[in-house]
């Protein structure tokens, strides 16, 4: 089981029972949320500029090493996830590449933690130690429904358009989620731990913590939206081997929501909790048999 591939998406509308009223409802609710956020000025670049800085002591070598870890993860999905659709890789090759990517994910997390630890007050500035725990929990409470609704709305909309064009997506759009249908109790527990605890923790440290911080080092401290967008695109793309292309826009939206919260709070706690809850919802829907009926 690959810690890089936690269950991310359960598409809520099955291709053969697509409810267009459901699509419209999801998109309408998402539109209202975005409108409210925009009206409140939350999406303006100045809001992010007021967020705390990481101030991690990165050297030029650190930037290359950090990008190298992310690059190995990306290469795994480029080679296996995308290339695997046209090349029948031997099982040993595929397993080896995925193991390298999983190790890169762990190593990237440890590397970012180590750099923060070696910097004065770095663990707090990098977000490993919450600066304001109560505020972080507030962001978690309000950010979770917003991230979930925007992500699911994107998934449903993409599925609707794809179905209309003759390219429907599977109801359960993740290999690990599919395993839950027939897995024994021990495997179910292992999947839940991987998806809700290990996967979100490592991914948030690497894609929000390490990658967004490195991007700010490259583009400048004011380029927070640029860092969020690029990190979210990479975050979405590295799941291509575990999902179909239908899930990528939703993953990107989830990444943007989590990236915004990280830049706004400077804390990894709320983004980890939201990611974990989101994965947990997907698992709960599969185990309870919810999916096609909830579209």
Describe the protein's architecture and organization:
- Helix content is 70%, strand content 0%.
- Helix 8 packs antiparallel against helix 11 and helix 10 (248-265) runs antiparallel to helix 11 (268-287).
- The chain has 11 helices and no strands.
- The protein has 295 residues and is mainly alpha-helical.
- The chain has helices spanning 20-39, 45-49, 60-82, 91-118, 122-126, 133-164, 175-180, 185-219, 224-237, 248-265, 268-287.
List the keywords:
disordered N terminus, disordered C terminus, globular, 295 residues
Summarize, please:
The protein has helices spanning 20-39, 45-49, 60-82, 91-118, 122-126, 133-164, 175-180, 185-219, 224-237, 248-265, 268-287. With 295 residues, it is mainly alpha-helical.
Structural class: mainly alpha
- Looking at the structure, what is the overall shape? globular
Biggest sheet details: none
From the N-terminal CA to the C-terminal CA, the straight-line distance is 29 Å
Run of helices and strands: HHHHHHHHHHH
- Mean pLDDT score, rounded? 84
Low-confidence stretches: 1-17, 290-295
The proportion of residues in beta strands is under 5%
What is the radius of gyration? Answer: 19 Å
Oligomer: single chain
> Approximately how much helix is present in the residues?
55-70%
Overall number of strands: 0
Number of helices: 11
């Amino acid at each position: 089981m690959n810690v890089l591939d936690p269950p991310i998406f359960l598409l809520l509308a099955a291709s053969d029972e697509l409810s267009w009223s459901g699509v419209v409802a999801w998109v309408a609710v998402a539109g209202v949320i975005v409108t409210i956020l925009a009206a409140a000025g939350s999406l303006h670049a100045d809001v992010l500029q007021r967020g705390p800085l990481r101030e991690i002591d990165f050297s030029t070598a650190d930037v290359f090493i950090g990008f190298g870890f992310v690059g190995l993860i990306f290469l795994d999905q480029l080679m296996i996830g995308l290339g695997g659709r046209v090349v029948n890789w031997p099982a040993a090759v595929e397993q080896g590449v995925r193991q390298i990517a999983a190790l890169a994910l762990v190593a990237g997390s440890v590397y970012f933690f180590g750099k923060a630890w070696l910097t004065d007050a770095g663990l707090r500035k990098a977000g490993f130690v919450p600066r304001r725990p109560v505020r972080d929990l507030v962001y978690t409470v309000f950010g979770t429904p917003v991230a979930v609704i925007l992500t699911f709305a994107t998934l449903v909309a993409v599925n609707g358009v794809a179905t209309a064009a003759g390219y429907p997506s599977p109801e359960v759009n993740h290999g690990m989620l599919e395993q839950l249908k027939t897995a024994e109790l021990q495997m179910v527990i292992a999947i839940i731990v991987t998806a809700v605890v290990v996967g979100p923790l490592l991914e948030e440290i690497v894609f929000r913590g390490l990658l967004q911080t490195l991007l700010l080092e490259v583009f400048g401290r004011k380029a927070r939206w640029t860092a969020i967008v690029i990190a979210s695109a990479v975050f979405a793309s590295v799941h291509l081997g575990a999902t179909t292309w239908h899930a990528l826009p939703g993953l990107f939206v989830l990444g943007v929501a989590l990236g915004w919260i990280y830049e706004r709070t400077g804390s990894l706690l709320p983004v980890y909790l939201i990611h974990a809850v989101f994965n947990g919802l997907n698992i709960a829907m599969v185990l309870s048999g919810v999916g096609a009926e909830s579209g």
